[in-house]
Amino acid sequence: MNIIQCSICKKPFHSIGAKVCNECLQKMDQDFITVRDYIYENKHADIDKASEETGVSKKVIMYLLKDGRLIIEDSEGGGGGMLFCEVCRKPINTGRMCKDCKDKVANTMQKSISTGKPQQAASSKDSTPLRGTAKLNK
Ligand SMILES: [Zn+2]
Ligand SMILES: [Zn+2]
Fold it and tell me: What is the pTM of this model?
């Protein structure tokens, strides 16, 4: 059994992969609709305002944003200064990474798929230095 702390209400619960307990998940589904509708009507609202007006806690809104379920946009198309790319710290409006970094990750993954064989990380005899950076500029 895997018992973790719910990232919303901090209660310990049996997790089958989720970071949030069932109770909070169910509540969050309703909160999601409330906040989504609010943001739909108030396109440039920031999280503080959205939380205030909808009564949904900021924690929940942040969770939904990071989960990619909600998108918040200020007048510059950013996330109201609330959400940042976890890789390059650029302001973003949904998810955990900006588009550039997401593309980079997708590329890297595709490359390792297209080369076919998994990298021989287990073989300690292979002392080839890390390669790949030179490959990028072809
Ligand atoms: Zn909870
Ligand atoms: Zn980034």
Answer: 0.67
